């Protein structure tokens, strides 16, 4: 493990913002840290970066301090500097031995090639976010702490930044905090779910998707359900039935095995006119809601 925490705790008076968290982050991985607002994600990253002192516990990071970089959720820069000057300042402060040509390289990687000589006071929030990514990467860090790096980006900007982060896999280790669960599901190998300061799940993403969420099937009927939903709710192996925004019935079941044995027969008994029937694809959002409800 390149990053480990041991009962890491941060208290403000009687309130525990982070409460006994044990993170384990493997070398070269992209680790997704997710949780509701106020769950302790930012505080955890701040302690790892050395910006806040833990109230208890400890942590270990297997790289030198100058090989650790933090991107805060709302990076801010002196407005009179150009994009090039901001990233050049970061390079000269953290890694002056790196060639100056690297500055333009990371600006281009962050999607700012056309705005390098503009003063950052005129940048949009999304552009400032990308400038923060470029400033974080210019020092060639081995561990990246990324706090909501896509929160202010438009779809194209998010795509560029996600591709940039995913491209670090195997070269650098990234801890990626985000409330955009689809982004975490797309690029992360491992996920940690926080709630009220505690780490309530940690492990491979695929295990969370297959093990934490309730199995469900999506049934599309011709016309109205005509009481089909009510008849399905009466089945002992059905745990819930709801209508989706797409006009389908979402049927939660105790197990995939029971649904495979019983669902088709139950629909036939209800005289349902079935257009399509398919298992619901596992999503991090569904698993997250199951864990945090």
Report a brief summary of the structure.
By secondary structure, the chain is α/β, with parallel strands linked by helices. The chain has helices at about 40-50, 85-95, 100-110, 125-135, 155-165, 180-185, 205-210, 230-235, 255-270, 285-290; strands at about 5-10, 15-20, 25, 30-35, 55-60, 70, 145, 175, 190-195, 200-205, 215-220, 240-245, 250-255, 275-280.
* Structural shape: elongated
Oligomer: single chain
The fraction of residues assigned to DSSP E strands is 25-35%
Order of strands, main sheet, comes to 6-7-8-4-9-10
**Gap from first CA to last CA:** 31 Å
**Main beta sheet:** 6 strands, mixed
Chain-wise SSE layout:
Blueprint: E1 3-12, E2 15-21, E3 24-25, E4 30-34, H1 41-49, E5 56-61, E6 68-71, H2 83-94, H3 101-109, H4 125-137, E7 143-147, H5 155-166, E8 173-177, H6 181-187, E9 190-195, E10 198-204, H7 205-211, E11 216-221, H8 228-233, E12 238-243, E13 249-253, H9 256-269, E14 274-279, H10 284-292
Parallel strand pairs: 4-8, 4-9, 6-7, 7-8
Antiparallel strand pairs: 1-2, 1-3, 1-5, 9-10, 11-13, 11-14, 12-13
Helix pairs in contact: 2-4, 3-4
Please, could you describe this protein's structure?
The chain is α/β, with parallel strands linked by helices. Helix content is 33%, strand content 27%. The chain contains ten helices and 14 strands. The strands form three sheets. It has a six-stranded mixed β-sheet, with helices on both faces. A hairpin with a 5-residue loop joins strand 12 (238-243) and strand 13 (249-253). Helix 2 runs parallel beside helix 4 and helix 3 (101-109) packs across helix 4 (125-137). It is elongated. The model has no long low-confidence stretch (mean pLDDT 88).
